[in-house]
Predict the structure.
Amino acid sequence: MAFHYPNGRRFVQAAQKPIARPLKQMSYSNRGKTLEDDLNDSNEYYLANGIAVIHKKPVPIQIVDVHYPQRSAAVIKEAYFKQASTTDYNGVYKGRYIDFEAKETKSPTSFPLKNFHEHQIEHMNHVVNQAGIAFVIMRFTAVEETYLMKSGTLAYYWERMLSGGRKSITKDEVKESSLKVPLGFQPRIDYIKVIDTFI
Amino acid sequence: MAFHYPNGRRFVQAAQKPIARPLKQMSYSNRGKTLEDDLNDSNEYYLANGIAVIHKKPVPIQIVDVHYPQRSAAVIKEAYFKQASTTDYNGVYKGRYIDFEAKETKSPTSFPLKNFHEHQIEHMNHVVNQAGIAFVIMRFTAVEETYLMKSGTLAYYWERMLSGGRKSITKDEVKESSLKVPLGFQPRIDYIKVIDTFI
């Protein structure tokens, strides 16, 4: 249900959140939120402000058994997680198709490539061939740094691994080959601003 | 794992399917396939031929209980279906963002609006405001006719219902206000060709 102000403007809960927090918590620090939380907040902000329409896709599930109890909702009794064949986030910004995967690592020195799957790399290649904008958002949680790496760059490091090279991207390589996403207050992760620098 | 022909071209299973079917089944008739099956086939065809990258989103699920048995995959033991807040299909065609919902009706005379949810209408409005391409694909299964209705047109009939008007769109209205999608062999539902007529 959508609530509206008397002037007809839509009430948006996300915009209210920070006010409820004690002032001392209103720093730009991570506050224990995951990258996914931050991205969901940012996407809500983009949507509420008419900046972009980006959603996280539901987790893909293989449903095996469903019960239909009388007078109540269907219950899934057996299901399994499936490997995603695409990326987690997609949507539209100024008519352009946006597609990305978001991953974080605890390692302060490198980003492990096992965070990604062959299917996702392939999917991002397809998107780029179709003139879409595909990238990954990587966060080094230990140092609270977030980077946007274009899918072509990721594909380069992926190929390096497949040809016997290292199974991760060093922090220095990430720094050199990606765009840093400044951590802000609202939106938390303003990746649209970063996209603006290269489209 | 991707297979490749000796010349480097990728082996695409979807393109092989029709050959395995007996000739007498190779008509343009529905063969009992659902609209979703047909769209999935069409999307595979578009992907394999580099025409567009469109995927169906996973069904949104609220997971309540997961078991982690030793030496085997995690099992979801309790979960519920959630109402989708967006549409089922999205992707990219020539750099443009494509977003649609697909529904079929057994009624030969009208398309019931209860096939859609307020959230989906809102979502499609957001997409259009962001210069994306949003529409619904409607199939009248009784007569095997498929239409592409732009989201703005659907919004008009939706508003009519909200202001006390009829709860469905008559077949004649659909015919007049939508684009017919010819039923073909491969792809089954060539909606990209229809999109070409209005972008």
